[in-house]
Each structure stands twice: as structure tokens, then as C-alpha cells.
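C-alpha cells as discussed.
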């Protein structure tokens, strides 16, 4: 009540002093509670990583399906994949602004994001390659080319947790053989794209468990981005 009565006097210096005190007090409380009850970005990485793997699995399944899905389903799967990729990229960017001691798996996340974008680019190109091959090859021939890679890639991008997926890699069959060299003829674009898909899927599957391990490893003193 006394403070409200003082405000009625209209003294500008008093009003400025009160505003400065309120601002300083609010900033001090915000700074203090950021260490008392923090929510660091690395704590959200497991959830975002699972969402990304699930979205990539669904996108790959839509692109490599036996029959091309309708445009609406394809666009929805692609949107979910890019939304998940944007979310984990945002986590990575915000983590760079946190204290070095609270950063986890920066290198692994950067590699994961890079290979995920490359995987998305190859999947987008696959739809075009399939449409071009449909003019010259039968659906059975195209399916015979795609099926081994589809099954292998979907296993690598499976819905299980990264830790479980990493333990299963030892018993996972080897990837389908790369396109055989044909003397005097250019490489088939579809087979080359399938080989690139296998490479990116293998990289992503290998990085996932490393991210999980690094999240539980305290940052070294003096670590930087």
C-alpha cells in the first residue's frame, strides 16, 4: 500500500529506480534458477533422435515401397522427416549457446544431421529415378532392383532404440552388393542411387549408438563447440 501511494506522487526518479531494481532482480532470479532447475538441451536429444529415426524409416518405406504411393502420402512422409530433422537441428543449435560443460555429443549430432540430409536428398531423387525407369522396365524388374536395398535400409532405420539397433548390427546381414562394373557403359543411375542410400543408412545407424553413449559422458574441461 505504501508503494502504491508513493507511485501516485509521480516522482520520475523514483519510477526509474523501481524499474531498474525490478529488472535487476528479475535477471538475477532467472540466472540463478537456470542453474538450480535447469533443462539442458542434451536431455531432449533421445526423444528427438527417436522421432528422427522413426520419420526417416517411414519416409524410406514410402519411397521404396513396391508400388509408388500417392502424392499426398509421399508429401506427408517427407514433411514429417524434415520436421524431425529441423527439430534435432534446433536442439544442436541451442546446445551451442549453453555452457561448454553442458554440451553433449556435438560432433556426433553434426554428423547425424549431415547424413540425414543426404539420405533425404537421395530418397527424393529415388522417386524420380523410379518414374524414369517405369518407362523402360517392367514393375517386376524395378522391384527386383529395389527390394534388397529396401529391406536392408529399413532394418537399419528400424523403430527400435539406437542402443538396441547398435547391438543388432553385428548380426545384420551385409548390404546388397554394389552395382557391378560394366566395361564401356555408364553406371546405372538407379543402382548408383541405391548404393548411396545404403551408405547413408549405414552411417546413420552407426552414429545413433555413439550419440547415446556421448550423452552419458560428461563434457571434458575446456571443451568447445
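Sequence:
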Amino acid at each position: 500500500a505504501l508503494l502504491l501511494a508513493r507511485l501516485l506522487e509521480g516522482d520520475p526518479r523514483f519510477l526509474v529506480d523501481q524499474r531498474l531494481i525490478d529488472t535487476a532482480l528479475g535477471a538475477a532470479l532467472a540466472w540463478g534458477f537456470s542453474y538450480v532447475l535447469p533443462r539442458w538441451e542434451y536431455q531432449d536429444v533421445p526423444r528427438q533422435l527417436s522421432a528422427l529415426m522413426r520419420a526417416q524409416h517411414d519416409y524410406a518405406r514410402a519411397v521404396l515401397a513396391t508400388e509408388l504411393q500417392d502424392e499426398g502420402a509421399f508429401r506427408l512422409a517427407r514433411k514429417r522427416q524434415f520436421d524431425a530433422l529441423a527439430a534435432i537441428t534446433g536442439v544442436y543449435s541451442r546446445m551451442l549457446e549453453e555452457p561448454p560443460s553442458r554440451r553433449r555429443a556435438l560432433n556426433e549430432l553434426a554428423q547425424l544431421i549431415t547424413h540425414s540430409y543426404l539420405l533425404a536428398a537421395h530418397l527424393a531423387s529415388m522417386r524420380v529415378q523410379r518414374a524414369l525407369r517405369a518407362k523402360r522396365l517392367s514393375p517386376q524388374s524395378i522391384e527386383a532392383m529395389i527390394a534388397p536395398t529396401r529391406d536392408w535400409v529399413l532394418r537399419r532405420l528400424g523403430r527400435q532404440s539406437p542402443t538396441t539397433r547398435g547391438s543388432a548390427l553385428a548380426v545384420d546381414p551385409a548390404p546388397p552388393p554394389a552395382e557391378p562394373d560394366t566395361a564401356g557403359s555408364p553406371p546405372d543411375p538407379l543402382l548408383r542411387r541405391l548404393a548411396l542410400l545404403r551408405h547413408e543408412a549405414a552411417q546413420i545407424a552407426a552414429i545413433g549408438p555413439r550419440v547415446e553413449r556421448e550423452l552419458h559422458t560428461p563434457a571434458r574441461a575446456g571443451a568447445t563447440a
